[in-house]
Amino acid sequence: MQLLELFITFFKIGLFSFGGGYGILSVIQGEVVTRYGWLTVAEFTDIVAISQMTPGPISINMATYVGYTIMNNCCDSRVIAIIGSLVTSFALMLPSLILMVIISRYLIKYSKGPTVNAVFRVLRPTVVGLIASAALLLMNSENYGTPAESPLRFVVSVLISVAAFVALRRKVSPIFILVVSGIFGALFYTFFG
Fold first, then answer.
1. Nearest-5° angle of CA 158, CA 162, CA 165?
2. Cβ distance 48 to 125 under 8 Å?
3. pTM over 0.85, yes/no
4. Structural domain spans, the chain
């Protein structure tokens, strides 16, 4: 029954989410953490970090890891967990596959038309909003701590985020930023923890 619920949930996410991987993060969190309570915020945050480091589209990586983690927590069986990861990944991709098969011939034919342009003009700011929402959802106490609990941890976490943002704006390689941030974070939490 849990597999069917996962399939339906991720099919809906795939059907109604726009903006690619980062735009879909807040939708996945809203469903699996807030609505159903299948994962904790800490588990979801860990899954986001793993999904970003793993090769491939982040939305599919997220679906795969979420399905695995939920079914592993539920059934404590690796076989069932792997099936869960396959179900969620397939369910997330299926709406896109169906829609692309149906509308691809019409989109190519009418891509320069005013209606299609109007739809894309509306979708662009929506995508920016979804990505901003995902970023804000990840700015939580599990990732940053709180000034009341650990002011030093909070300040260092904010400084790492700001430095990474500035480096990205200056066209520094994201891989370099991840490696340096990871090393700095590991050293900081090892010694000041």
1. 140
2. no
3. no
4. 2-143, 145-193
